[in-house]
Amino acid sequence: MSRRSLTTTIVAAGGLAVLCAGPATAATTPTTVGGPYGVGVVKPAATAPCDQELRLGVRFTKASKRAGVREVRVQLRGTKTGLTVPFVTPRFTTVRLSPACGTTVTVEYRVTRKTKTMRTATSATKRYRVVIAARPAAPTGPGGVPQEPGGPPPLPAASAKDPDGVRTWLALADLRSGGSRKGQTCVQTAVDSPDGRSVVGSTFCGLPEEDAVVAAATTLNGRTVVSGVVGTQVTALTVTGPFGTQTITPSKSEDASDEAGEIIAVYDAAAVAPEQLQLQATLADGRVLSFTDIRRLNWRSAGGARI
User: Which residues form the signal peptide (predicted)?
Assistant: First the structure.
């Protein structure tokens, strides 16, 4: 992943979000409008489809730097879903938030500033109301089990439908830019349900650009979950288990094609155990890497040593 201008996907620590970073290009950067203290903000559309992330963003400018802007909090007002974007240098940062279907949300940009002459920080907000479409009724197969037309759907990028047909599992990754894990990509697993989003399991970190695949296979909430992140050198990835072999499509930002991607797959723990799963990665140079034990695959410690 590039460390230039960041594209950021969020899941906030309060239980409703996660963080992904990747390069943004001028050609795909959304248009911004004027926000508080010279900060440019992305104005969302008044309506949005169900199960589609809201693509928001913040542009720091020279004017916002002169105004003493310290940070911008981008969130769904009244919830803990959001991200605090600190001011570093003038740049654009994309933020993606996932509201629940069938709701009306208020996107809030809260800009905080404090200059050397100010005793306390002040803040100002810009808000937009967005109506999220309701979830369409899913067609059903034998026994009333939800089923996509034409048979089981392929695994979506960075998300996987729970076997119950209601919940959605997500792999959430962020590239650490400082601290003892600087340069490592860390992954959390989250699950969306009608009650909201919750982060489950432990965070693990690694170096996907060096090791090709960083992953975990574990049992969470009665499910066997494979989650992780792959490096840009991985061109294809499959998971093999009692069910046969299945292709996993890594997530890719629409802003760039040269960033690493998250992966996730979910199975009923009664039918599939973590130790029964294997991964096979095909690299751009034609090599094929096979991993027979993926329960703690290529994890790294805070100092960078393999765990």
Answer: 1-26
Q: Which two tokens stand for residue 82?
A: 């959001």
Distances (CA, A) of 215 to 7, 100, 258, 286: 22, 28, 20, 21
pLDDT tens digits, 69-116: 999 999 998 887 788 888 876 688 888 888 888 899 999 999 999 988
Instruction: Answer whether 46's CB lies under 8 Å from 30's CB.
Output: no
Pair (79, 168) in one structural domain: no
Check the CA dihedral 213-219-225-229 and report its sign: negative
| Residue 298 is assigned to a structural domain of this protein | no
Task: State which residues form the domain around 204.
Answer: 153-291
Nearest to 194, CA basis, from 112, 134, 121:
134
List pLDDT tens digits, range 10-25.
Answer: 333 333 333 333 444 4
In a domain, 215, yes or no: yes
Q: Do 35 and 95 fall within a single domain?
A: yes
Burial of 83: CB neighbours in 10 Å, binned 0-12, 13-18, 19+: buried
